[in-house]
Each structure stands twice: as structure tokens, then as C-alpha cells.
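Write out C-alpha cells for Mutator-like transposase domain-containing protein.
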Amino acid sequence: MPRVKKQGKHLYNIRKMPKRVDVPEIAEPSKNKNVVMNERLLNLSNVSEEDKIIQVSSKSKFVLIDIDMVNTLLLSAAFPECQQSQLKLNCKNNYGFAHKMELFCLNCNACINSSCSSKRLENTKGFEVNKFVTEAFLYFGKGYAAVEQFGMLLGMDVMSDKTFSEYTRIVFKDLEETTRKVLEDTRNRVKKPIE
């Protein structure tokens, strides 16, 4: 014989709750919103153009790009030496998610320029993009297997598990350094006499 479902006390409590709750109004700040906004704009305008350029260029921006689409775009650009519109971007070596890119002319086979797709990390041979990918997957609670699946689904070359472990050490070392700095700053603020 099936059990009869009991009605809990929660239904009783719902019926007793007031239908409308009055929330007291928060006092408005002494300054008008427009005045505050104008002060912010003045502070922003005090920054020199040189500082703005440095601030913008110091932060890397990453995008996923289909190389075939870039090559379609480059076909309309002309190489100054031979005046032909046949430029191609070739991604040769991969270093995890970073690649060595070469721009060359299909007509005269001249290499115009080459660069890596990501900046290098300071004091190491590693690349920023690999560190950020490692950091992101660790943040999601995923490991190397998830990085492999991500690369496989997008048809991208990924870093090896050994490289992933090296970047994991770099990420944790950076976290330890940041934690140490925050704790040191907190200690100094607590020790500082109240003024």
C-alpha cells in the first residue's frame, strides 16, 4: 500500500508570511549623482595620453582565430617588394597554445616577418597564453584531461601533460607570492597605529 505524503510545516509557515514587506528607503548621498560622475571624468582626464597607451598595451588580449580566415584577409594585402597580393600566415612550431607565426609572400617565397602568437613570461621560457589556459582550467576545477578535450574539440594543438604540470607549478608559485604580499600588507596595516 502506498504511503500518504505528509504535509510539512513549511506550508503552514508560507501562509503566515506577510504578503508585502516594507523596505526602509536608504538616505541619498549628499552629492548629486551627476557631480560624482563629473569628478570621475575629471580624474580620468588627468591621466596623460602616454599613460593611457601604456595601460592599454600592458594587458594582453587573446582571441581564438581560424588561420584560414586570416589568410583570406591577407590575400588582399600586397607585398611591397613584388607588388603581388599573395600573402600568407604560416604557423610553424607550436609551444602549447602558442605558435611561431611567419608572414610570407606566396609569389616570391620571401619571409616578411615572424613572431610568436603570445608574449613570453618574465624570467622563463614559457608563454603567457599557456599560463592563462592552465590557470583557467585549474580555476574551473579541471585538469590536463579537460585541456586535451578542449584542444581536440577545437582542432588545436595542446601542451603536453609535463608542460601543464610545469605551468601548474608557475601558477601556484604566483599564488603563493600574491598571498604572501597580501598577508604582509595586512600585517603592516594592523600594526600601523590608528590615526
